[in-house]
Amino acid sequence: MHRYRRALHAFLLSRSSGGGGEHKKLGSVTWEVSRTDGIHLHWQFLPVPADLIRRGLVEAAFKVEAENEKYPVTFRRGGKDMGDGTVEKGDFFRVWMWVPADGLEEEDDDDDDDEGQTEADTAAAEEGLENSGKEKCIVLPLNEGFRFDLQFGRRVMAKLLGLDGRRDWRECGQTDEEERADAERFKEVFKRFDWTLEE
Asked: Between β-strands 76-77 and 133-142, what pairing exists: parallel, antiparallel or unpaired?
């Protein structure tokens, strides 16, 4: 999954610029819901204006919404100890916030001890790949008896982006034909970044 995220980051770098035109500089927010009794992986990836991440608005939005919902625990900063999603114990909701290399100001990069550096960053360095960005990770531990809304990440980001009509996925569906057309368009523009096509 992290390899796909790195490919998507490279794709975003190729499609966005620092100008304010049609293609603003983009970062990404990826969230994961991990439940030990879950049926499948639950990850979502969303390109967002990098400035929202750089200014701390994405992180603040998740923390404030958790407080508003009176969640019994609070977010904590993730880091290398959170691993790659395959060795963690217990239930959690995790958010990765990525910006291009020049997207975080010096004041945000105050962790000389690599706090917030993720397994993906470490793996990229070990593989000799350029991750071309900076990433922060926050984690919300989920208690066993706590009923967590699987749409929490989507609700937070829709609210932050002013897209209230897209908070509930059931209210913004597409026809099968529209989905197929979008999938084909994406495959075409993503083709050069799709490592699964390499022979």
From this structure: antiparallel
